[in-house]
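notes to self, project folder thing:

trying the whole complex as one job this time. last attempt i did each chain seperately and stitching them together was a nightmare. two parts in total, labels are on each line so i dont mix them up again. if this works i'll redo the older ones the same way
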Amino acid sequence: MQSTESLFENIRNDFPILKRTVRDNKPLVYLDNASTTQKPNQVIDSISDYYQNHNANIHRAVYALAEESTEAYEAARDKVANFVNIKNRQEIIFVRGTTEAINLVAYAWGRPHINEGDIIVTTEYEHHSNIVPWQLLTQEKHAKLEYIGMDDNGELILDDLDKYLATDKVKLVTFSLMSNVLGTITNAEKIIEKCKAAGVLTLVDGAQAVPHMKVDIEKLGCDFFAFSGHKMLAPTGIGVLWVKKSVLETMSPFHGGGDMIREVHKYETTWNDLPYKFEAGTPNIADVIGLGSAIDYLTKIGMDAVREHEVELTKYAIEKLSAVKGLHIYGTKDISKRGGVISFNFADVHPHDVAQIIDEEGIAVRSGHHCAQVLMERLNVAATSRASFYIYNTKHDIDILVNSLNIVAKVFKL
Amino acid sequence: MSSNADIYHEMIVDYSRNPINYGEIENHDVTFHDSNPLCGDSIDIDMKIDEDKVTDIKFHGKGCAICMACSSILTEITKGKSIDEVRAIEKNDVLSELGLEHLQAVRIKCALLSLKVLKSALYTYIGDNLKDTQDVDKLKEEAANLY
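result (full assembly):
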């Protein structure tokens, strides 16, 4: 059997982009995986193969190509079901990404179910995509949006949740399984247990978690679950919304159009079966197939091995970065409670300046508020630099990052 | 070819550490705030205007080294100028002072945020005090299309 280390070394060969150089002929060190990941040949090839050999619209025509296309599209739905353990494939809706998934829920579930005075609870470390749709909904319905606070260790203060649940006004609690800034892994079991006891629905934003660890939706027991393909080797513009069937059946359609209907008459329409009621129009067929290939790729490695690799890298990075004078790492240092995302600030140097200087060394890190301005306010910073890892990253990448910070120190006379 | 990191020369780093004209003016005649939605840089400019002349100007806020250095230079350029002269300030007047004429597109917004705020402040002042709407519309357009 191949050792884990050599397995992860070989992985790099599958990613053509990792062979290129940037700026002044520097090898690319890609550390912005929480934003989006690179794509392996297997995913890229499956998309070209679809367009070169099978392209046709799905669910309609009877000819050979249409049959192949429909089969490949629906096979990807089954791959999703197996990957995150969903028992009923009818509960899987393909969307553009996590943002669209959450907006779909806010619109199609929220509008019929949220009334004046109701409360929706989110958390201080959410991405804007799990805040703004709820602001829009609660403002329209004269309902309230409340936040579970975060402690200085970057973990949620679950007592806040008890306080809100005690009001009997909470209709939904929505939270990310992993923070995109701090990497904190949320104690989802505990939150869902509390909500279930109170008869409150839960939405889990799995955008940062699904690509990096084994996720079992059935076991989790939430009501809504969303994730994006592009953060897990798949193309951009494809994602998944899962909704428990009993809840899905109480939702109105999101988009009206083709494929979501059973019968259309001049003034009335009946809806198609689940999940097609929520997949109006020609879907993103090629990228759904690409998502299927990404799932195949990750399944072959095994999600436990993926997590183990990232734990190793994160441990190493925290150790090396902590040794850099003037560098502050945000969030918990307890590796079991965090994913491969490290946000930091370097003395008084603005993260944009850090990112620009180390870009010259070929390093891609993200700087800014990471679409989490509520969290930035809580941390009392304008921005952070963020390095985030994936299966193709190595300890060598982290060494290059740490060395490049010496250049920043020199420029800014630290 | 010069490297992008070359923009971090002495002057930029010094201004970012010790910005000039940094602070607030208590009895300002006009103040304006704006931010860059993508990066979170945020700048306020206060001005004191006497007899058509900018007699004092200060800025405060949060931003990267480029943003802070350009704000410092811009306030230096503006101080003592007449309203018409301030209206005539262009992007390159700021960028060339710091050798940033070839700044890459993603950082231009850092360099020009304070100019946008200055133009908007001037527009506010003109709109409030001079009641010259034709002028105001023109300035508004100028500020909006800065980058």
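what i see at first glance: The first strand of chain A starts at residue 21 and ends at 22.
need to look closer tmrw
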